Amino acid sequence: MGLFKRKSEEPAESGPAPDRKALARQWQEQAKQMQAQAMQFQAQAMQQAAALQHATAQQGSQTGQEAQAGSMTWARQVLAILAPPQPGFVKRCTCTVCGAPKKLPTVTAYVYCDYCASLIDYDLRRAGEGDTAPDPAYAATVNSTQAAARQAAAAGDRDAYRSLQQRVFEAYVTGVPMAVSHRARNDRGYRGAYAGYMAEAATARAFDPAYQALEAEMRQRVMGLRYSGNMMSPTVAPDSFWPMVDTMEKQIAASKVLYRSAGLADLDPDHAEHLTGKLGWSGFCQGWLGMLPAEAATQLLDRAGLTNEYVAVEAEDGQPRHCGGCGAEFSALPGATAIICEGCGRRMELGSAEIPCASCGAVMTLPAGADRTACPFCQSQVERAGLR
Question: Quick one: 175 and 209 in the same domain?
Answer without folding.
Answer: yes
